[in-house]
Amino acid sequence: MAFEADGGQAAPDFSIGSALGAAAGYVAAGGLNAAAVAKVSAETQKLVSAAKSGGFKITAEGVEPLLKVVRDMTKELNSLESKTVHLSQAPQLGDHPYGRAVAAHDHKGAAQSANSASAVIGQFRQVVLDTEEALLRASGQYKKKEDETVEALDRLKN
């Protein structure tokens, strides 16, 4: 894979492997939660910044397998999100005080807290989108993707 560090500086570890490795480490250390996703997001933002400034470049050939992984992750998140949509509904545990209290507690943890599955999936989705942006910028494909998106939106308006 072709990676070109900025020749005037030491090459920091702005790699996709570093960001995804950090995510894997957080999962291994107790799960992917809002704090873990925030840390991975911060690393991903460094990658985006490096790509914007020209400090991270990759060839079109080198970026393809990475983009495939990122796009596959987007598909997985879409699938996971459709499977967790029921978490936004409070479980039906009976119409007695204890059942209502447990249902409210379960619903809060599953759908309303910062560490709920839906919140973490949404935050991780943004990390994946930022990773795709960094890769497209680093390979010089970002402007093309942006133009295609604008063109598609214009077609929808007409």
Topology:
Blueprint: E1 3-5, H1 16-28, H2 34-53, E2 56-58, H3 60-84, H4 97-112, H5 117-138, H6 142-157
Antiparallel strand pairs: 1-2
Helix pairs in contact: 1-2, 2-5, 3-5
Notes on the protein architecture:
The chain has six helices and two strands; from the N terminus they run βααβαααα. The chain has helices at residues 16-28, 34-53, 60-84, 97-112, 117-138, 142-157, and strands spanning 3-5, 56-58. Strands 1-2 form a two-stranded antiparallel sheet. Helix 1 runs antiparallel to helix 2, helix 2 (34-53) runs parallel beside helix 5 and helix 3 (60-84) runs antiparallel to helix 5 (117-138). The longest helix has 25 residues, at 60-84. It is elongated, with a radius of gyration of 20 Å. The N and C termini lie far apart (42 Å).
Helical run tally: 6
Q: How large, in whole angstroms, is the Cα Rg?
A: 20 Å
**Strand composition percent:** under 5%
Strand order of the biggest β-sheet: 1-2
Quantity of strands, as a count:
2
Distance between the termini: 42 Å
What sort of overall outline do the alpha carbons produce when their principal axes are compared? elongated
Nearest-integer average pLDDT:
77
Q: What is the element string, with H for helices and E for strands? A: EHHEHHHH
Low-confidence stretches: 1-12
Helical percentage: over 70%
Task: Quickly describe the structure.
With 158 residues, this protein is mostly helical.
